[in-house]
Amino acid sequence: MAVSNDASELKAGSGAQATAGAKFSAVFAGTMGPLIGLVLLCLALSLTTDTFLTVRNILNVLDQVTVLGIMAIGMTLVILIGGIDLSVGSVLALASMVMGFVAHPDYLNLGLPAGIAAALVVAGLCGLVSGLLVTVTKLPPFIATLAMMSVARGLANMITDGSQIVGFPDWFTSLSIIRHFGFLSVTVGLMIVLAVIFAIFLNYRATGRSLYAIGGSAEVARLSGIPVKSLTNWVYAICAVLAGLAGIVLAARLDSVQPSSGLGYELDTIAAVVIGGASLSGGVGSIGGTAIGVLIIGVLRNGLNLLGVSPFIQQVVIGVVIALAVATDTWRRRAQ
Amino acid sequence: MSTDPRHTHSPHNGLVVSGLCKSYGPVQVLADASFEVRPGEVVALLGENGAGKSTVSNIIAGSTKPDAGTITWRGNPYSPANPAAAIDAGIGMIHQELKLLPDLSVAENVYVGRLPMRGGRIDRATMNARASAQLKRLGLDVSPERKVRTLRIAAQQQVEIAKALTLNAELLIFDEPTAALGGEETELLFQQIRKLKAEGMSFIYISHRLDEIAQIADRVVVMRDGRIVARHERADIPVRTVVEQMVGRSVERMFPKVSAPGNDTLLEVENLSSPERSFQNVSFSVRAGEILGIAGLIGAGRTELVRAIAGADPISSGSVRVAGKPVHLNGPAAAIKAGVVLVPEDRKAQGVVLDQTIGENLAIGNFDHVAPNGWVFPKAVQKFAEAGIRRLGVKGRPNQAVSKLSGGNQQKVIIAKWVSRPPKVFILDEPTRGIDVGARAAIYDVIADLARSGMAVVVVSSDLEEVLGLSHRVLVLSRGRQRGILDRSEASNVAVMELATS
Fold first, then answer.
1. Closest approach of chain B CAs to the CA of A323, in angstroms?
2. Helices (H), A218-264
3. Which residues pair with B174 in a beta bridge?
4. Which of A96, A248, A255, B177 is the most buried (most CB within 10 A)?
5. pTM for the whole thing?
6. Measured between CA atoms, how close is B385 to chain A, in angstroms?
7. What pLDDT shows up at residue A7?
8. Number of structural domains, chain B?
9. Residues B191, B288: one domain?
10. What is the distance between the alpha carbons of residues B108 and B145, in angstroms, rounded to a whole number?
11. Is residue A8 over pLDDT 90?
12. From the CA of A279, how many Å to the nearest CA of chain B?
């Protein structure tokens, strides 16, 4: 097949593509629009500010998007199968509170490794419950995860009766501060490694391809022998574990955990995935696209800060970008 | 009886339909249909699935527009722009799938869109009283405040009739009204029809149950392939005569020669029943190389039966053995592993992921082949897709979106998905539905090939000609019951239809 793909082939993100160019387009399937948007955005900011295009600032952007990026990976899987997860912000808070409670000397004092493990297990359980509500109780994903959003937030508050836990060991906070090889903090590295792993998983693993089939048509997937229910449970569990991990990263960045953290993060996360070209009806999307979506949000916030635009106007701008991104995608599809 | 399609109608107060034509693209579904319904009579409209009965009634009820032809209603030209216009003119239709709002009350459903108002608010007292009176007239004693969802299907149908009556309908079209009714409920419906008839109402009555026609109809109109092929001035005509007219002799079609089946029994179904009773106590077996056709009318339980065998729907009792080994039917995956594959009825919703490529559609369900250790390599998928495309003669490339293919090629993609495994039992549900007549021959060849290669093949089809042309034996279902298995030699149109309408 020719490297000069037409739009429909790009969109399809086929595993059947063979050439190197096609492999690239498979990872960044359907992301030409967002990619162009990101490039234009960076270009504009480079011209209007002196500080945007500096190594230091770019590294700052990466640091700032770590939490969002890790959550968006999980959300990509959920949206790919035609679901939605509104609970990620609350699960992030719950997981970080569990970590603080288990690890901090003022509470159980069992050490950070135990705290981190407990946080991930609790997050995973939250996701599993959401998944079971969808697959067994047949709740719409919106409702199931809306319920989990409320439950997890409540639990997060119950652990310390609403107060925050401050002060973790230096080695933990340095995970997000010390830049190894002069540029890469452990947390940014973690985000990049996770993105690569999940990109490979979605493109080259049978299970990953099955998620696209479930999103394209759950009934076709089921009749083809794909275990739709158990994969759905797994996807919600993994999304929640990643939200928990994001909570741990946030704790390292802030040197504290609080039950009110992650408020509204679910919407940022969904926005990043959707800006990256994923379809809320399922079957379309990629980690490459999500990465671009996350960077667009990160660069936009960073750039508007550099330009001295107020945070209130930033919210307006991000809303407009979401609408624009999805609208152009819809127009392009209709044009085909 | 008159078979002259051009006999003249004397003008009267009823409905006169003349020369209606309708085509969808190249397919003509209605050709020069003419008949009349006089005041106070019940005209039965008979025909096989796809004969054009629904099209003609949809035109009269205002939901479809004809390409040509005229309708006269009570002496005036009548061409409703939409169902509301038809209702205004006094013509209503009771659909097979009832069109009620399940979470509103009985009275609200009867008066929806024209709720009685007083002082800007809904006058519930008046509404309930009027609805109640209308229901009593039909002999139905339910509270007008009850939610429709809580009523039995038969009672829901009465609500639809009550609604039509309050709209002053003079002509009611019933589409398969008794399909979901039991014997007593059917009798009640017939009593109501007779009563309303005596009051001067007319009815067009569509049904597959020929035994009902003599009871309720005054005259009979038989359709086939979009044409009216017979009109009977009385309803007590022999079932055999009607069946012969319904199936008729259509254009000779080319079916591939099927070779004699082998000796090994590959599929054994024993006393299979569904939890919803859509089929009960079905038993049959299929040998290697044999094609078993399953015939029956819509709603006879054919699709439900083959879906259950393929593990897509649960069963309540019975067993399935493949090549002698019992299959635990707890999902499609288990059935596929045991060698049972299904080409489902609804190609676009159940067969293919439209937005994905041919290659991806072929890979789904074959990851155990194309993805050793779970790794999917684009090259392997491409190769696998190319092989499938070549074997089935699909007109397309592996990286082409399936939505861009014709129906026939989409169907071939679904068959190609399974053929390489290779399966032991290949089930095809309505394999040529919505596929051009020209492309059907290619599908028939593929089906014959599957049998020749030693698979047990099961073909469900509403197209009798197709079932008879392809199958070694034909199993006939009616209302979920197995009415018989006919050998190729004894299976004729008439024999099958007689069993199917029993």
1. 23
2. 218-223, 228-254
3. B94, B205
4. A96
5. 0.77
6. 8
7. 38
8. 2
9. no
10. 8
11. no
12. 12
Residue B444 lies in a domain: no
Is B482 part of any domain? yes
Token pair of B331 as six digits:
């999902």
Of B247, B282, B305, which residue is a domain's last?
B247
**Structure token digits, residue A37:** 């948007």
Identify the residue with better confidence: B9 or A293. Answer: A293
User: Residue A208 and residue B376: Cβ atoms within 8 Å?
Assistant: yes
Of A206, A217, A222, the CB nearest to B367: A206
Domain range enclosing A315: 28-329
Structural domain ending residue among the three candidates B247, B277, B312: B247
Please check whether residue A200 touches B, CB under 8 A. Answer: no
Residues in chain A with CB shorter than 8 Å from the CB of B312 are: 222-223
Helix (H) or strand (E) holding B456: strand B456-460
Provide, as residue numbers in chain B, all residues whose Cβ is less than 8 Å from the Cβ of A26. 378
For residue A16, is pLDDT > 50? no
pLDDT tier, A1 (very low <50, low <70, confident <90, very high otherwise): very low
Q: Give me the CATH number covering residue B263.
A: 3.40.50.300
Residue A12 to residue B342, Cβ atoms within 8 A: no
Each residue's pLDDT tens digit, A71-112: 999 999 999 999 999 999 999 999 999 999 999 999 999 999
Shared domain for B214 and B326, answered yes or no, is no
| pLDDT at A23 > cutoff 60 | no
**Contact between chains at B399 and A14 (C-beta distance less than 8 A):** yes
B27 at the A interface (CB within 8 A)? no
- What is the domain range of residue B40? 15-247
State the DSSP H helix or E strand holding residue A206, giving kind and residue range, or none if neither: helix A206-216
- Of B215, B179, B221, B176, nearest to B197 (Cα)? B215
Does B374 touch chain A if contact means CB atoms closer than 8 Å?
yes
Task: Say if residue B68 is in the same domain as residue B168.
Answer: yes
- Residue A301: CB atoms within 10 A of its CB come to 20
Rounded to the nearest integer, the mean pLDDT of chain A is 89
| Cα–Cα distance, B54 to B51 (Å, whole number) | 8
**A283 vs B: CB within 8 A:** yes
The answer to whether residue A313 neighbours chain B at the CB level (below 8 Å) is no
CB spacing of B376 vs A209 below 8 angstroms: yes
Can you tell me the distance from the alpha carbon of B239 to that of B237, in angstroms, rounded to the nearest whole number?
6
State how many domains chain A has.
1
Closest CA to B165 of B207, B121, B195: B195
Residue A71 in any domain: the answer is yes
Note whether B257 and B222 are same-domain residues: no
Length of chain B: 502
Which residue of A16, A204, A206 is in closest CB contact with B399? A16
Mark yes or no for CB contact B353/A220 under 8 Å: yes
Mutation choice for B interface testing from A220, A284, A333 by most B CBs within 10 A:
A220
3-class SS of residue A61: helix
Q: Is the pLDDT of residue B250 over 70?
A: no
In a domain, B393, yes or no: no
Considering only CB atoms, A207 lies closest to which of B353, B374, B399, namely B374
Cβ burial, residue B301 (10 Å; 0-12/13-18/19+): buried
Instruction: Select from A100, A116, A113 the least CA-distant residue to A159.
Output: A100
Which helix (H) or strand (E) is B202 found in, with range? strand B202-206
At residue A26 the predicted structure's pLDDT band, cuts being 50, 70 and 90, is low
Q: B354, A217: Cβ pair inside 8 Å?
A: yes
Residues of chain B with Cβ-Cβ distance to A282 below 8 Å are: none
First and final C-alpha spacing in chain B? 24
Peptide bond preceding A311 in cis form (omega within 30 of 0): no
pLDDT tens-digit series, residues A166-219: 999 999 999 998 888 878 899 999 999 999 999 999 999 999 999 999 999 999
A244-284 pLDDT per residue, tens: 999 999 999 999 999 999 999 999 999 999 999 899 999 99
Task: Collect all residues of chain A within an 8 Å Cβ-Cβ radius of residue B352.
Answer: 217, 220
